[in-house]
Design brief:
Length: 301
């Protein structure tokens, strides 16, 4: 059983299962979340509940973060009441998606206080968090990566991207742009086929056996669009945040993103039309409405 005490802040759809995997592996874990129900679920499994961010930083040597936005990560790490004022924490492992520039800023401020920032975003969705099959994209000095790798492997396969904070974020933004683009363009292709009379389930079988297959046709459409549930577990507003960060970063370093910008606008429209709680597979719902045809398994409502 590992002797080091770990902290975990952010116990939502992704953070909760990841923290649970550490508990299952025998790690001593101090946890915090503004949602007390989420804290209670982890406490029932053996975690120590903390009353504040500072309590986590006082209780743990290494603190994991799984948070929704760059602004929240900054508040939690380097804000007035954040981890930076803790007495014990010497390493912060950020599993969030915040973009390379914010990651570099947080790393710089923490380093001035003797705390190492590990840039380690993850990809693979809620199912991957539960199963431990997430892709972990880590960037930090190599010796710290080597020390952390056995722990990170509880979340899934780990990839070393380099020694600078932001390199993991750049990889994650590229990945999430591709994921969102796959949903957007698959929605249009599927709507066209269904309106022309094709069976959507057969369409997916053909696409997945051919050159058009992608993560949307293999996973998201069979699970969340054909049944009409639109519940793959990733909010459209968060997908928009990731794609916006990607396009902004590309523009900042001189890489044109014409297709990326179109995907970003599609996510803006999806959130505007379907609400803040919309899943990012609701992109297909928007396209259905415009096309006047539902993309559903034959026999489904």
């Amino acid at each position: 059983m590992p002797e080091e005490t770990y902290g975990f802040i952010g116990l939502g759809n992704m953070g909760g299962p990841m923290a649970g995997r550490l508990l299952d592996a025998g790690y001593a874990l101090a946890v915090y979340d503004s949602n007390q129900d989420a804290v209670a679920r982890l406490r029932a499994r053996g975690a120590t509940a903390c009353a504040s961010l500072r309590d986590v930083a006082d209780a743990a040597d290494t603190v994991f973060l799984s948070l929704p936005t760059p602004e929240i990560v900054q508040q939690v790490t380097i804000g007035a009441d954040g981890l930076i004022g803790g007495a014990r924490a010497k390493r912060v492992v950020d599993l969030s998606t915040i973009g390379p520039r914010v990651a570099a800023l947080v790393a710089q401020v923490l380093a001035a206080r003797g705390i190492l920032y590990v840039d380690a975003p993850v990809s693979g969705g809620v199912g991957g968090a539960v199963r431990g099959t997430l892709a972990v994209m880590a960037a930090c000095p190599r010796d710290h990566y080597d020390a952390l790798e056995p722990t990170l492997k509880h979340f899934g396969p780990v990839f070393y991207l380099g020694d600078k904070a932001g390199m993991g974020q750049t990889m994650k933004l590229a990945n999430n742009l591709l994921s969102a683009a796959a949903v957007a363009v698959t929605s249009e292709a599927m709507a066209m086929g269904v309106k022309a009379g094709l069976d959507p389930a057969v369409m997916l079988d053909v696409i997945n056996a051919g050159s058009g297959r992608n993560s949307a046709t293999q996973d998201k459409f069979p699970k969340a669009v054909l049944p009409g549930t639109f519940d793959i577990g990733f909010a459209a507003r968060l997908a928009y945040k990731d794609v916006r960060l990607c396009v902004d970063e590309a523009e900042a370093i001189g890489v044109p993103m014409i297709v990326g910008a179109a995907v970003r606008e599609m996510l803006v429209l999806t959130t505007a039309l379907c609400g803040d709680q919309a899943d990012f597979t609701h992109i297909a719902k928007v396209v259905e409405t415009w096309a006047g045809v539902p993309i559903r398994q034959r026999g489904s409502a």
